Amino acid sequence: MGVQQNIRNILNELAQNAQGIDNAQADRLIAHIRKAGHIFLQGAGRSGIAIRGFANRLLHLGFSVSVVGEISSPHSKAGDLLILASGSGETGSLKSLAQKAVESGVDVALITLKADSSIGRLATCVLALPGTAKTENARAEGAFSQPMGSAFEQLCFITCDAIILELMAQLGESSHSMFKRHADFE
C-alpha cells in the first residue's frame, strides 16, 4: 500500500469521523472550561499524550491547569474541573479519579468514544467522538481502520486543538498573546 496511501487513508478516516462531532457537546465542554477554578487533566496511554497537549495549550491561554499526578498539582476544590480522555470510558485508574472528583464536588468532563460508560455516567459533560473502540480484530472487521485506538487518540488531539481555536476566538487571544505564556526555561 505504501506510506503515502496510509496517510491518505488515515486523514480520510479522521475527516469522516470528525463529521459526527456534536458541536453542542463541544460548546458545553468549552463553557465548563471557562468557568472552572482550576482544570485537572488526565488520560492513560496514548490518550494521555493527547490530553497533555491540551493541558499545555490551555495553560498558554492563561487557564490554571495541571496534569493529574504531577508533583506541582494543587489540591482540588468544588468549582474545579477534571477533564479525562478515555476511548472506552472504562479505564480503571480514570474511573477512580472520576469517582473521587465527584465525591469532592469537582465537575468531570469526558472525551470518549462511549458516552454511556462508567466514566460517562459520572461526568457532568461528555464529548463523544465518533469511531470504534480498540479491538483485536478491528482491521479485519471491514473497511480501512487504524490499529487499536489510534483513530480516537488522533481525533482527540485534533478536537482539543479545535477547542483551543474556539477558546482563542472567544477570549480574544492570538498566537502572539499565547506565546507570552510559553515556557522560557526549556
TrEMBL record:
GO terms for biological process: carbohydrate derivative metabolic process. Signal peptide: none annotated. SUPFAM superfamilies: SIS domain. The keyword Isomerase applies. InterPro entries: PHI/rmpB, SIS_dom, SIS_dom_sf. Pfam families: SIS. This is 6-phospho-3-hexuloisomerase. It comes from Kosakonia oryziphila. The lineage of its organism: Bacteria, Pseudomonadati, Pseudomonadota, Gammaproteobacteria, Enterobacterales.
